[in-house]
Structures are given as C-alpha cells and as structure tokens.
Design a protein that fits this description.
This protein is mainly alpha-helical. The chain has helices at residues 2-11, 23-96.
C-alpha cells in the first residue's frame, strides 16, 4: 500500500483545504472525486445532451419544411418549361402548315 500512498501524495491536491494523511483518507478523497465526476457526467447526459438533441430535431424539422418548398418550386419550373416547350412545338407546326 506504500506505493499507492506515494502516488496519491504526489498526484492529489488538498480537498477543501484538508490534505489526506493516510490510506483511508486518500481512498475517501478519491471516492469523493469519483462521485463528483459521476455527477458531472450525469449533468452532461441529462441536460447538455438533451439541449443538443432538441436543436438537432429543430434543424431536422426545418430541413423537411424546406424540402417541401423546393419540391413546389421544382414543379413550377418544370411546368413552365413544359408549357414553353408545347408553345414552341405548336409554333413550329404552325409554320409548317
């Protein structure tokens, strides 16, 4: 257990101004750090990722709405080109008669 104590003494700062002095206190200190990290991870999962999911859903809905508008514009342009083509063919047939 001595190498663990040396590692902790070198790599651990004080916790709320209290320096752990023996293995038990180091283990308790590490447990507190792990619990703090677990709380932070839970906060990220429940709060921050939820906000990102909401934003992605909103963007996805906007893209779907935009897709409907693009389809409408596509059909208007296609119909116009078709009408101009028919008028052109009618004009050519009228010249031939």
């Amino acid at each position: 257990m001595a190498p663990l104590t040396q590692y902790l003494e070198v790599n651990m700062d004080t916790v709320k101004g209290i320096t752990p002095e023996d293995e038990r206190e180091h283990i308790i200190s590490l447990y507190g750090h792990v619990k703090g990290v677990e709380r932070e991870i839970e906060l990220i999962k429940t709060n921050h990722l939820k906000h990102l999911d909401d934003k992605i859903t909103h963007v996805h809905e906007d893209v779907e709405k935009l897709g409907g508008k693009i389809d409408t514009i596509y059909w208007v342009v296609l119909s116009t080109v078709g009408a101009v083509g028919l008028i052109f063919i009618e004009t050519l047939l009228g010249m031939m008669s």
